[in-house]
Amino acid sequence: MLTVVTHNEAGLRLYKKVGFKIEGTKRHSLYIDGKFVDEYYLSKLL
Predict the structure, then answer these.
(1) How far apart are CA 34 and CA 21, in angstroms?
(2) Which among 4, 13, 23, 36 could bridge 28 via Cys, Cβ 3.0 to 4.6 Å?
(3) Residue 35 forms beta bridges with which residues?
C-alpha cells in the first residue's frame, strides 16, 4: 500500500505500470506550498 499526491502524474503512471490500483482518494490531506492537495491511496495484491 502507498499514497501519492494526485498531481504527481509521473509517479502515478509508474505505480500503475507495476500493478498498483487506486483504492481511494483523501481530499485535502496534505498542505504543500501554501495549499491543500488531494492524495490517492493505491494498493497491489501479491
Answers:
(1) 29
(2) 36
(3) 32
The pLDDT assigned to 34 comes to 97
pTM for the model stands at: 0.86
Grid cell at residue 24: 481511494
Are 39 and 7 in contact, with CB atoms under 8 Å apart?
no
Grid coordinates representing 1?
A: 500500500
Long-range CB pairs of 41-45 (<8 Å, 24+ gap) are: 41/1, 41/2, 41/3, 42/1, 42/2, 42/3, 42/4, 42/15, 43/1, 43/2, 44/1, 44/18, 44/19, 44/20
